[in-house]
Write a structure and sequence with these properties.
The chain is globular. It has one domain: Jelly Rolls (Sandwich), CATH 2.60.120. It contains 3 helices and 11 strands; from the N terminus they run ββββββββββαβαα. The two termini are 27 Å apart. With 175 residues, it is α+β, with helices and mostly antiparallel strands. A hairpin with a 4-residue loop joins β5 and β6. α2 packs antiparallel against α3. The strands form 3 sheets. A 5-stranded antiparallel beta sheet has the order 1-2-9-4-7, with helices on one face. A 4-stranded mixed beta sheet has the order 8-5-6-11, with no helix packed on it. Strands 3-10 form a two-stranded antiparallel sheet. InterPro entries: RmlC-like_jellyroll (IPR014710), RmlC_Cupin_sf (IPR011051).
Length: 175
């Protein structure tokens, strides 16, 4: 797994993850929601609080409202890399869940459900997200190659054009 964190300003945090078959550890947030955009492969989202595994395919988004425990796993066949862009709005915090082997065991061999509701809630930040996409289209962030740059721009444009300009309606509950 490779994480490239390249922007955290004015309450917008943007990162890119290239996933092999090592998973991001289970974690939760008190103050931010994870909004992810799958740009390559397939991402499985494991949600222990609701005992669900959801699959997100290329061009799709998904939001995990805080404080739900979750992790993102490469859901593509072994040997196939997957990539997602992560957007968080607000003050970043992360809390890792101890003893994750027990949690991971409940998802072993579990069939994933394809995401059908890919609504993300971008609060009042549509204009800021659009400006950030324009900026990254003109200037590649340090550490990203041109393909990753294109994926970040596509993700931000998707969040801005399809995101609802309101806070998540259920606050701390999975959508």
């Amino acid at each position: 797994m490779e994480m490239k964190e390249f922007h955290y300003q004015d309450g917008l945090r943007v990162s890119l993850f290239n996933l092999d078959h090592k998973a991001v550890p289970y974690h939760f947030h008190h103050a931010v929601s994870d909004m992810m955009y799958c740009s390559r492969g397939q991402i499985a989202v494991e949600l222990p609080d609701t005992n669900e595994v959801l699959t997100v395919g290329p061009g799709q988004t998904f939001q995990v409202p805080h404080p739900n425990k979750h992790r993102f796993v490469n859901g593509a066949p072994v040997g196939t890399a997957s990539r997602y862009v992560l957007l968080q709005i607000g003050t970043f915090d992360i809390n890792f869940v101890p003893v994750t082997e027990d949690i991971a065991g409940q998802f072993t061999d579990r069939a994933a459900t394809r995401v059908t509701d890919s609504t993300v809630y971008i609060e009042d930040r549509k204009s800021d997200i659009s400006k950030l996409a324009d900026h990254f289209e003109q200037e590649r962030p340090d550490g990203l190659d041109s393909e990753e740059q294109g994926d970040v721009v596509a993700a931000l444009r998707c969040f801005a054009s399809h995101g609802l300009e309101t806070a998540h309606p259920r606050g701390g509950h999975h959508s």
